[in-house]
Design goal:
By secondary structure, the chain is mainly α.
């Protein structure tokens, strides 16, 4: 029972942080109004619920689950490699000149840890 409460708490904490981050990215970087940012965030959440309901209502094989998980893992790796890693390397280059190799090694190590 304690483990279940811990999982619920961690999940809620993760989702609150994720939704706040999505909101700030949509309003600050994508320059959307708060109404549109919240609306798109809500529709995105509904799409996740719809996908979950579809999977629960259909007979999904283990192989199909593996394929879906592989595709989503590939999407996360693509985003990390194409969006996040170049920004982290640019920040490491801008902030440090003496220990650039060490900073780049740390950035790459954190990328590897994040993908595992």
């Amino acid at each position: 029972k304690t483990t279940a409460y811990a999982i619920v708490f961690v999940t809620i904490y993760h989702e609150v942080a994720q939704e706040l981050a999505d909101y700030f990215i949509l309003t600050k970087h994508a320059h959307l109004s708060p109404f549109w940012a919240l609306s798109l965030n809500f529709v995105s959440g509904l799409s996740v619920m719809l996908g979950g309901i579809i999977v629960l209502l259909t007979n999904v094989s283990d192989m199909f689950n593996g394929v879906i998980l592989s595709i989503t893992a590939g999407v996360y790796l693509y985003i990390a490699a194409c969006e996040c890693l170049p920004r982290a390397v640019a920040i490491a280059k801008r902030n440090s000149t003496k220990s650039l190799r060490i900073d780049l090694l740390i950035v790459f190590a954190m990328f590897i840890v994040g993908t595992i």
